[in-house]
Design a protein that fits this description.
Strand content: 25-35%
Helix content: 10-25%
Distance between the termini: 30 Å
Order of helices and strands: EEEEHEHEHE
Shape: globular
Structural class: alpha/beta
Largest sheet: 7 strands, mixed
Strand order of the largest sheet: 1-2-3-4-5-6-7
Length: about 130
């Protein structure tokens, strides 16, 4: 898979996958289009930000999801470019992020403050997942 670009998922025009390199491994991000201007972005990496601006210049409202307390390294860069982005994580992940010194303090508990999902989409954390 090509790195640092967003690729469409065949048969799902609202869904895009991005792959990027962080120290020592490859990570994945997912973008779900709610509307041409509004997206959910799960685990965005800083290396995907330039491609985002090229591929989705109309996207102005973002909902950024931390799938767990370990997927935080690129979020600060995204928040710099999208200061009005809404941040979401599980209660367990929020505590982990605070312990790691993550500076963004306005993270919403995803269980208490669900984000808008397109029809037919659901967010589930399987039992045993690091999100809690």
């Amino acid at each position: 898979m090509k790195k640092n670009v967003w690729l469409p998922v065949a048969g799902f025009p609202e869904l895009h996958i991005g792959q990027y390199i962080v120290p020592n491994f490859v990570s994945n991000a997912v973008a779900i289009e709610i509307s041409p201007r509004e997206f959910i972005v799960i685990s965005p990496g800083a290396p995907l930000l330039a491609a985002w601006h090229e591929q989705f210049p109309q996207a102005t409202q973002l909902h950024i999801v931390f799938p767990n307390g370990y997927h935080h390294m690129g979020v600060s860069a995204w928040v710099e470019d999208f200061p009005d982005a809404k941040l979401y994580a599980s209660a367990v992940a929020i505590e982990q992020l605070k312990q790691k010194g993550f500076r963004q303090t306005h993270i919403k508990d995803i269980d208490r403050n669900p984000m808008p999902l397109p029809k037919g989409y659901y967010l589930r954390f399987p039992p045993g997942h690091r999100a809690g």
